[in-house]
Model the fold of this input.
Amino acid sequence: MKILCCISHVPDTTTRIQFTADGKALDRSGVTFIVNPYDDFVLARAAELKEKNPTGVHVTVLCVGQNGASSTDSVDANLRKALALGLDEAVRIDAQPADAYFVASQIAAYARGKGFDLLLFGKESIDYNGSQVPGMVAALLDLPFVSYATSLEVENGKARLTREITGGKELLECPLPLVLSAQKGLAEWRIPNVRGIMQAKTKPLHVVPPVSVEPRVKTLKHELPPPKGAFKKIEPDKLDELVQELANKGLI
Done:
């Protein structure tokens, strides 16, 4: 079985967001980039499947991105971290992500004709929260797509999945190949051990050129939200004052 895990290179969740002077992009200076946290679930599940069948499962990790000027903005470093979980090889498509369609087109172009049985994605990236790329890849490759999966089992050429829906859970069975986006619950996050980190340094990391694709969306400007207004602090033992303040504002 061949698995393609697609990951995003995103700012750390503690990043203080600043934009470039023209407002069209994130100011990357001093920012530490990480593997998108939702992608960690699919990496962990792929590692579990690999452990169950070491010779029968091959896992490729893919990211669309270019290395930044600093060591904290290295796509290759994050791909190596993914490989340290025991996965087989990594691929970096050497292009700066422009929009969801551009990224999906790059992934689909790479995956087409390579016989992947599973294409795994986190449900969204934590920078844009679009949840668009997995579905677009499925459409471009004409493959079935299941979103927001919380469990995955593979047997006899079929995938059995669970996903959360309003008011309950949905159990699905789908033939392979399949595109899947995952959320919390698919697997427990893993921390690479020293042996995995050392082995990852020698595993293949292929850099491939992008295909020519015209983005569908153009970013005009990013803006920070307005600063928070003034507030009044009321001590915990002064509940009467709190009630009166809420009443004065017409909130109760």
